[in-house]
Structure formats: C-alpha cells, structure tokens
Design a protein that fits this description.
The protein contains 8 helices and 18 strands. It is of the alpha/beta class. The protein has 4 domains: 2-43; 50-160, Immunoglobulin-like (Sandwich), CATH 2.60.40.10; 188-229, no CATH class; 234-392, Rossmann fold, CATH 3.40.50.410.
Length: 396
C-alpha cells in the first residue's frame, strides 16, 4: 500500500512541476485529473467505511481442549457500491495467558451483500479464549488510500478440560438429611415427597404405604417405598493459584482443571452427591455448588473458567469449618497448585470427623514431600507432565 501511495504522490508532484514549467494545457489537465482521482478515491473509501459492518459468530461457546473452534467473520456492505479490498485483522488470546495472536483476511465485497469468512482456532490449554476484531481496513481500487474501522465486537469461547476415566473405585458416602432436595438412587428412606420404588407387599410393611389404586389393578397388594434424602457428604475445595515464579502456568491449570473435572465425573458415575467450592478474592466471596449430574459439573467448570486463577487462593481452607458443620461433610479433597503451608493442616487438626485428602499439582523438578504439613487422608501428587496417567490412577 505504501509503495502505491508513494508512486501516486511522486506522479502527482511530477505532473504538477511539468504543469508549472510548460505552458501547454495538457500537463495541467493531467495534474488536475490525478488530483481529482485521489479526492474521489478518498471520498469512496470514506463512504464505504460508513456502510460496512463487521461481526463475529461462533458455532459453539464451549469446546474441549485441543478441539477446533469454528469462528465466522461476517462483513456486511449496506451501500450499493462494491468495495475492492477489505482487510480484517482478528486477535485472539487465552485470558489466562494474556498473549495475543493475530490472523488477517482480505476480501472484496459487492454492493448490498454480506461476506462470511470461516476460520478455525485451536487452544492447547484450558481457559477463556477471547476472539475479537482488532481492526478492519477499507482500501480503494488501487490500494492507495485507506480508512480504518474499529468495530467494538468480540466473543468468548470457554475451553473445557479433558475428563479421564479413573480406574479405582470409590467408597460412596450417603448421609441422610431431612430437608435435602437430592435423593439416593440406591437406598430407600422415609421421605413421602418422592417415591423410590413400588413393590409387592411383604410382612412388616406399613399399611399407609399401600398403593391401593395399583393394587386393585394387579390383584395383589403393592406398597410404595419412599426416598432417602441425602446430604453433600463429599466436597472438593479448589485453589487454582500457582506460584508466581512458575513459568509454565497454563500447564498447571490444565492439570488442575482436568483433575477437578475427572474427580467430579467419577463421583457422578458412582452416584456420589458432592460439592465443589472455591474462594474469589476480587468479590471476597465463597462459592459452593452442589453436583448431582453432568449438567451441574459443566456449569461449575464454566464458572471456574470465568474466574482468573490468580483471583482464587488458599483462603478456601477457612471455609471448611462452615462446611463441616452445615453440610455434614465426611470427606474433603483439597486441590491446589501452590506449595502447602501449616495453614492447610488445620483441616485435620481442627475437625477430626472430616477426612481431608490433599491433591497437589507439581512440576517435574518439584519435590514430592511437603514439610510440616499432614492430612488425615494423605497427599496425592499429580505431575504436570503426564498428568493423564496420574489422574487415572488417583485414589479417592
């Protein structure tokens, strides 16, 4: 573009000098023609810019790690004049990494039409992928003049972690809670608000549990088994913070998020009701979300990806006193990427009825022994390199 502009300016100056030096009108005509041509091109570029709209569309707002993200750049020309060249610069970054990357596209658009450009992005790490339009440049026919359009549009795609199948079985813990809205799928109880099963009458069954309508149809006495309301007896406490000196922070986040997702999914598969909790420093607020199915899990993962990792912290450990009292927690898992301190040890010393197991994400060169910190449920270590195998073999 700069070469074309330099040539145009040089020719314009040269024709102007000739018009001054020679008395013939031909040189003057050429000079004014070139000048008028430039003015017209500037006007057309300005007009085209006023009638262009650029937006981004995504096929899905969520993808899994290493899965292609389909994004469409839509440019609409509302004027009747065609635009010879439009250059769009797309920026994208993982908000955990804050390292922007760019892609450029050049297209021509006819009048009163819409041009859609589809492209694919891939993220090697979990997090929030923010995609935006840095600028749209409108050129004239010869690419001498241009005008910049900066549309204020962007979209965010959540990149979910991998979920690995865990080999080891877990001991399902169900504790009865009278006012719970979650019921056991494997054991009956005494809550008449939910029917667990209907079966034939046995000696000792209570008369008020007889299902009279169904019994009359089947010519045998049928009784209702009521459901057993259960509490959140297992919890996962999350600290996404990583030591600031760590260079490969995104690899830590990948391992931590995969660990949390795989643990929760394993509990769901074994019908273990649980919760995931974390502390958000910016809002100075504790978050505690009950997980009863896959929908709950992915909703919580979405919320965790909304929170910047450095905005969580070890303050979550001060929440366990409330959890141990109000939720009758039998076991807690503490997932962290930071080196542990004596503060975390209060899990085991202050609340002996709650078993606490720590899961520490470590780098290749980090020691596997914590000094001065003990947990009643022990400590499991997940290496950043090769975390898939460690998660699959994790003992819960």
């Amino acid at each position: 573009m700069w070469i074309n502009k330099s040539i145009y300016v040089a020719v314009l100056i040269y024709s102007g000098v000739l018009a001054l030096l020679y008395t013939g009108v031909q040189c003057m005509y050429i000079f004014f023609m070139l000048l008028i041509f430039g003015v017209l091109q500037i006007g057309l570029v300005w007009y085209s810019k006023r009638h262009l709209k650029a937006t981004l569309k995504v096929d899905s707002a969520t993808v899994n790690k290493d899965e292609p993200m389909q994004v469409s750049l839509v440019i609409e020309n509302t004027s009747f004049l065609p635009v010879a060249c439009v250059k769009a610069v797309i920026s994208y970054e993982n908000e955990y990494e804050h390292l922007k990357q760019y892609q450029s596209f050049c297209v021509s658009i006819n009048g009163k039409t819409t041009q859609s450009i589809k492209f694919t992005l891939t993220s090697e790490h979990v997090g929030s992928m923010k995609v935006g339009i840095k600028k749209v440049v409108v050129y004239d026919l010869l690419r001498i003049f241009h005008r910049n359009l900066k549309p204020d549009t962007s979209c965010t795609i959540k990149v979910f972690p991998e979920v690995f199948s865990m080999e080891n079985e877990i001991k399902v813990i169900h504790q009865e809670l009278l006012d719970s809205e979650t019921f056991s799928k494997v054991k009956s109880g005494d809550d008449p608000s939910e029917v667990f099963d209907i079966r034939e009458y046995k000696d000792g069954d209570k008369i008020h549990r007889i299902h009279w309508k169904l019994s009359s149809k089947r010519d045998c006495v049928m009784v209702k088994e009521y459901s057993l309301p259960i509490a959140c007896s297992v919890g996962i406490l999350v600290n996404l913070s990583v030591d600031k000196k760590e260079e490969h922070r995104l690899s830590y986040y990948d391992a931590m998020m995969a660990t949390i997702a795989s643990m929760s999914y394993h509990m769901i598969a074994n019908e273990q009701v649980h919760f995931i909790a974390w502390y958000e420093k910016k809002k100075e607020d504790y978050h505690c979300e009950r997980i009863t199915g896959e929908e709950d899990l992915y909703r919580v993962l979405y919320e965790l990806l909304e929170v910047k990792a450095e905005e969580t912290g070890r303050e979550i450990v001060s929440m366990h006193s409330m959890l141990g009292t109000e939720c009758s927690v039998a076991k807690l898992y503490y997932v962290t990427g930071e080196e542990m301190t004596d503060e975390e040890e209060t899990f085991s010393t202050d609340y002996s009825k709650t078993e606490v197991q720590a899961i520490r994400i470590v780098g290749e060169k980090e020691p596997w022994e914590e000094t001065g910190v003990a947990f009643s449920g022990g400590i499991e270590y997940i290496e950043v390199d090769g975390y898939k195998e460690r998660i699959e073999a994790l003992l819960l």
